[in-house]
Amino acid sequence: MPSRFRVVAGYLAGIVVFVFARPTRDSVLLALPFFVLGEVVRLWASGHIEKTLRLATGGPYAHTRNPLYLGSALLAAGVAAACASVPAAAAVVLYLAAFYPAVMREESAFLRRKFEGAYEAWAREVPMFLPRLTPGGPRESRFTWERVALNREWRTALALPAVLALLYARRYLPF
What we know:
Layout: H1 6-20, H2 25-46, H3 67-83, H4 86-125, H5 145-150, H6 154-170
């Protein structure tokens, strides 16, 4: 599916997830490690990336070429677990399957054109999505909190309590 539909489809998937969610205290507790790990990965990645300016190859980018998507996938797994609902989890999985592979291929093609040889050397050592255990590639970028702020990762960090509040509220809605 073309990535230009990603945001609209995300909102639609979110509505489906909310309608079908049946969260419990235990399902939310089960989801918490996914939420924490996903946000830690996203923060770590956000502190390394200077979008379109430099190729990020250090930190989490030495383990996977797409740590922001990996972190988001972990957050999505948390949502699916918290919902305690097969239809809600299916909506999460379908959304990720419909958009993540295509978006990662598009971004890979862009980075390959923009950073040519440096990208090829990095891509030979670092997998596209599932992380390698030991770091690989050139590892040239360095983490800074300034980059985290510039990349506005605070929005995702603030969205997590909002998602948990919505799921908590969902427990008391009759539909």
